[in-house]
Design a protein that fits this description.
Elements: E1 18-23, H1 31-35, E2 40-45, E3 50-54, E4 72-77, H2 95-105, H3 114-151, H4 155-158, H5 178-185, H6 187-208, H7 217-221, H8 241-244, H9 260-290, H10 299-321, H11 336-357, H12 372-400, H13 412-440, H14 458-499, H15 507-520, H16 526-551, H17 555-558, H18 564-597, H19 599-612, H20 628-646, E5 649-655, H21 657-668, H22 671-674, E6 677-682, H23 690-693, H24 695-698, H25 700-709, E7 712-718, E8 738-742, H26 770-783, H27 794-804
Parallel strand pairs: 1-4, 1-5, 5-6, 6-7, 7-8
Antiparallel strand pairs: 2-3, 3-4
Length: 815
């Protein structure tokens, strides 16, 4: 008997229903602005992130004949994930953690270099751990050294601060002994570490706990099992070298947007490291005293606790060095014993250190300062060495698979990691110096002139002194860019007038358009500014460590006896840097708070913040929460559910940062759902920013794979847009993804059709360009034919179309 021949697979059914899912960009937008209608209804979601429709479109897929020319519009609003009340400005204090987390994702493209890739991740996580130790050490420097040790141990300082009276060494109270003062002050940095742990745990539950699509969702999208096993982007020939490169990208892995296990493990290690840092400060002072002659406490007790501290620290470092993320599956496992016992053990050791330091030592007198100098020097040296190792690994990976558009030839990650260390040093040093100045009153700690306390470690003064030098060095590239931009704008003039010919030239109008276009091109020069700042920071930081180590004095005192110009320059750099570091820190916090309250300010700096919080917390668990771990599963689930229930066409339309979310969500879709989806991006930084800085995830190969896996894709961009740009897919034949640069402004002067001056839109309002509607219609045609118009009953249908189709389905999706 002949075997039965299986029936051919059914082609995808098209019900005629079409949906446009709008995703806004930076700064957020209301559903009413995105949909162009004050009457909206929430379809699904909550107050933080949700999908909205116009009220009359609430059940649009049930009447596809009404939307023959325009798709049903939905707006996904995710602004609640990145903006809110002013208290969120406190997240800016975690900026160094966010920046070093970015460095983890900036690894160059690598193929077959698993050991090098793993080494890169280990080094980044060690740099992140050093930043946690640096923050905790700065809190210890303020609370333990400046307040409890120096000010409370000096009568002239404690008498000025009445709230320190019970700690004063001259009061003779129970708390007057140095060890007990340190034990009490240790609660401040310990509480800071506990707060960081709480915020990391709480934000995970609120923002990042959404699970991605399960493998079983494939069956939900294809209940009959008739769809093809591979989407349109799957390689047809495994022997084709180009097809072989199109392996599934990292962003399509089921566990990419669900790093619960790694974040929990890193949180435990960083929390333990913070508690151990506080314990080391307390134990260091007590152990040094106990090793002197005449101590009333046997030193063996301190040695046992110090040994336990070293052992626990080794375990924390081992946890950091373990394998990072497992993305091939959604990892729901949690290392319960590790998460419970490692922070608990560190906290227990801190408690033992506090009890040991609080043991009565009547002969102990505090003088000078604690030995924080060695701690800060070792931290600075270790961070510099780790960044150098990271640069060597990144450069070796880049040489294996060079991509011309990759930032700084693969050194973008090490440069950003160096900036994270510099930010951490500036913020911690600024707080320590400002507190020392406040405690000392009219004196200036560290200068030896009228000060009553020793002040913070001299390394912090040296680091502050190099800030004016760094700013002076930055003047050179800044002036170069200004001159180059002005020349470029002048050269653009004839081309702009020819573009708008035969309209009569207008010099003022031409200069304005040229200036905006030339300024928008500055975005492509940002990597070199970052590289210059990072290299200068590394060199000047090394000089600061060497100067503080060799002299043991602040720059103003270290140059006493030198030539008058040298001494005066050193003193000016020290005083200027000290105030710059404090003023910059306050200005940073105030600006951040304004950005969360003021929409215009939020749009200005929002792109940098949203890039930083787009990526999961894979290097630092105390970084601000990743909104994409909520937004990407939301979008993927919505698209998957809609295509499964309606079998209709879907366009996901993303502007600015919303285009990156849209692409990431499309990558997460099962193949059957992806076949029904078209991607429309505009003002998109997906290649100009993400492709250059994050080549392993948005480089040429992943973007080419995205284009081949999604049904169709169009990208719109303008020359006046400082953020968005082309995708730059280079294949033969040309995939035809990029459309642009679009004409901006639409009219050079006054015309009959546009009698008023047209604005230069730049990054906003792409929907105002007629090309937008044209390309969206073309995408719908590629996804499937429209339903034919009904010859009969036309009056009824026309009424529906007039009621529904008269409104544009794509409102303002820009942020």
């Amino acid at each position: 008997m002949a075997p039965a021949i299986p029936p051919p697979p059914r082609p995808p059914q098209n019900t005629g229903a079409a949906l446009e899912l709008l995703v806004h960009g930076v700064g957020g937008a209301t559903p009413q602005e995105m949909l162009g209608d004050p009457r909206t209804v929430r379809v699904t979601g909550d107050a933080t992130a949700a999908v909205y429709r116009r009220t009359e479109d609430a059940h649009g897929e049930k009447h596809p004949e009404r939307y023959r020319d325009e798709p049903v519009a939905e707006a996904y609003c995710w602004s609640g994930l990145t903006s809110g009340n002013g208290s969120r400005a406190l997240w800016l204090l975690l900026l160094p953690f966010m920046v070093v987390n970015l460095a983890h994702w900036m690894r160059p493209t690598a193929s077959g270099r698993r050991r090098a890739v793993r080494l890169y991740g280990v080094v980044v996580r060690l740099v992140a751990l050093s930043l946690t130790v640096l923050l905790t050490a700065a809190a210890c420097e303020v609370a333990l050294d400046l307040v409890a040790w120096q000010c409370a141990g000096t009568s002239a300082c404690s008498e000025r601060r009445s709230w320190l009276g019970f700690l004063s060494s001259h009061q003779g109270g129970w708390w007057s002994q140095p060890g007990r003062r340190l034990a009490l002050a240790a609660t401040v940095p310990a509480a800071l570490v506990g707060l960081l742990w709480y915020l990391s745990n709480r934000t995970w539950s609120a923002y990042e706990s959404q699970s991605p699509l399960d493998a079983t969702d494939d069956d939900a999208c294809d209940p009959d099992g008739t769809e093809e096993a591979h989407g349109p982007g799957a390689p047809d020939n495994a022997d084709d070298p180009e097809s072989a490169r199109l392996v599934p990208p990292a962003l399509s892995r089921p566990g990419f947007w669900y790093g619960r296990r790694l974040v929990s493990r890193l949180r435990a290690a960083h929390t333990a490291a913070g508690f151990l840092t506080v314990a080391a400060f307390v134990m260091g002072a007590a152990a040094r005293h106990d090793r002197t002659v005449g101590s009333s406490v046997p030193p063996v007790f301190g040695l046992v606790i110090e040994g336990a501290l070293l052992l626990c620290a080794a375990v924390a470092v081992w946890v950091i060095c373990r394998r990072g993320r497992s993305e091939s599956v959604r990892d729901n496992r949690v290392d319960g014993a590790l998460i419970t016992y490692l922070p608990g053990s560190a906290l227990t050791l801190l408690g033992l250190a506090v009890v040991h330091a609080g043991w009565s030592r009547p002969e102990w007198v505090s003088s000078g300062s604690l030995s924080g100098e060695t701690t800060f020097r070792l931290l600075a040296l270790s961070q510099g060495l780790l960044v150098v190792v990271m640069a060597l690994v990144a450069r070796s990976l880049y040489r294996r698979a060079p991509e011309p558009r990759t930032t700084l030839y693969g050194l973008g990650g090490p440069s950003v990691a160096m900036l994270a260390c510099a930010l951490g040093g500036v913020m911690t040093g600024g707080v320590a110096q400002r507190v020392a100045d406040w405690l000392d009153g009219p004196g200036t700690p560290g200068t030896g002139r009228g000060s009553i306390i020793e002040g913070p470690p001299v390394l912090l003064s040296w680091q502050a002194s190099v800030i004016p030098v760094l700013l002076l060095l930055l003047l050179v590239p800044v002036v170069f860019l200004v001159v180059r931009t002005a020349r470029r704008a002048r050269r653009m003039g004839p081309d702009i007038e020819a573009e708008y010919a035969p309209e009569p030239p207008d010099r003022a109008r031409t200069r304005r358009i040229a200036r905006i276009r030339a300024t928008a091109a500055l975005t492509d020069s940002a990597p070199w500014i970052v590289g210059v700042v990072s290299a200068a920071t590394l060199l000047l930081g090394t000089a600061a460590v060497a100067g503080s180590w060799a002299s043991g004095e602040v720059p103003g005192l270290a140059t006493d006896g030198a030539a008058a110009p040298v001494a005066s320059l050193a003193e000016a750099a020290q005083s200027t840097g000290s105030w710059l570091i404090g003023f910059g820190f306050l200005l940073f916090v105030a600006g951040g708070r304004r950005a969360y309250r003021d929409a215009s300010a939020r749009r200005t700096i929002g792109i940098l913040w949203d890039v930083g919080t787009f990526w999961p917390r894979a290097a630092h668990p105390f970084a601000p929460p990743c909104y994409a771990e909520r937004a990407v599963p939301d979008l993927a689930s919505r698209m998957s559910a809609w295509t499964a229930t309606t079998k209709g066409r879907l366009i996901i339309s993303g502007h600015s940062q919303g285009s990156v979310l849209a692409a990431a969500a499309v990558w997460q879709l099962p193949d059957p759902a992806r076949r029904r989806v078209g991607l429309l991006t505009y003002g998109s930084p997906i290649e100009r920013l993400y492709g250059r800085w994050f080549p392993s995830y948005f480089g040429p190969v992943p973007l080419l794979g995205l284009n081949r896996s999604v049904h169709c894709w169009r990208n719109l961009h303008r020359a006046t847009d400082p953020i968005g740009g082309p995708v730059r897919l280079t294949t033969d034949p040309d995939p035809g993804v990029d459309r642009g640069p679009l004409k901006d402004p639409l009219a050079y002067g006054r015309t009959t059709a546009l009698p008023l001056p047209e604005p230069i839109l730049g990054h906003s309002d792409y929907q105002a360009d007629p090309v937008f509607a044209k390309e969206r219609a073309a995408l719908l045609e590629e996804l499937g034919p429209r339903l034919p118009r009904q010859a009969e009953g036309g009056d009824v249908l026309e009424k529906g179309q007039k009621g529904q189709g008269s409104q544009k389905s794509s409102g303002r999706s820009s942020g």
